[in-house]
Specification:
The complex is a heterodimer of chains A (113) and B (112). Chain A is mostly beta strands. Chain A is built from no helices and eleven strands. In chain A, the strands form two sheets. In chain A, strands 2, 4, 5, 6, 9, 10 and 11 form a seven-stranded mixed beta sheet that branches. A four-stranded antiparallel beta sheet of chain A has the order 1-3-8-7, with no helix packed on it. In chain B, strands 2, 4, 5, 9, 10 and 11 form a six-stranded mixed beta sheet that branches. Chain B has a five-stranded antiparallel beta sheet with strand order 1-3-8-7-6, with no helix packed on it.
């Protein structure tokens, strides 16, 4: 049981480049979310999904796109990278039954230069 | 506005001592989580609290939830160096379409 798998673990981008952060879970969870974590701060929600085909914006969605074509996958796209997007990104998933918390991936450390 | 406030934000303590981290939140929820994060690592689930009065214990850590006071506590008993980490509380508002709202985290340093 792999849980939540994020790739890549590290990435350096130049300003203006685009890329996709991958997130996959094998627990058949309905809820999936993307967060960013900046130094000294808690996590901030970027986008989330409550099921395949359904996505919505979180607290800091600008500059990011998501899609949820399958239950398992929830990729995060950076459209035109900016230095302000330098951060650690975490993907998380949870069951709709809410008897469990959220399971987190290992994170992607992104640097935009 | 949904807010989650943790305090203290930084705690340095000696091994063997007891201490409590507090998590206050602004809007009613019956679900609250505690996570641990080591430097450069992901978030590890510690406790899932799902109802008023819930109390859970794991080793030297004990968490409780008072939904009426909108307060959760994480109590550390006889601290050991291995518990040094940053601890986060997160309140689950998925029914209100806000997902998780996070506290800023408590950086805990336990000196041998």
């Amino acid at each position: 049981n792999a849980g939540v798998t994020q790739t890549p673990k590290f990435q350096v981008l130049k300003t203006g480049q685009s890329m996709t952060l991958q997130c996959a879970q094998d627990m058949n969870h309905e809820y999936m979310s993307w967060y960013r974590q900046d130094p000294g701060m808690g996590l901030r929600l970027i986008h989330y999904s409550v099921g395949a085909g359904i996505t919505d914006q979180g607290e800091v969605p600008n500059g990011y796109n998501v899609s949820r074509s399958t239950t398992e996958d929830f990729p995060l796209r950076l459209l035109s990278a900016a230095p302000s997007q330098t951060s650690v990104y975490f993907c998380a998933s949870s069951s709709n039954s809410a008897n469990y918390g959220y399971t987190f991936g290992s994170g992607t450390r992104l640097t935009v230069v | 506005e949904l807010k989650v406030e943790q305090n203290p934000l930084f705690l340095s303590m000696q091994e063997g001592k007891n201490y409590t981290i507090y998590c206050n939140y602004s809007t009613t929820s019956d679900r609250l989580y505690w996570y641990r994060q080591d430097p450069g690592k992901s978030l590890e689930s510690l406790f899932v609290l799902l109802s008023n009065g819930a109390v859970k214990q794991e080793g030297r850590l004990m968490a409780s939830l008072d939904t009426k006071a909108r307060l959760s506590t994480l109590h550390i008993t006889a601290a050991v160096h291995d518990l040094s980490a940053t601890y986060f509380c997160a309140v689950d508002y998925r029914d209100s379409n806000y997902q998780l709202i996070w506290g800023a985290g408590t950086k805990l340093i336990i000196k041998p």
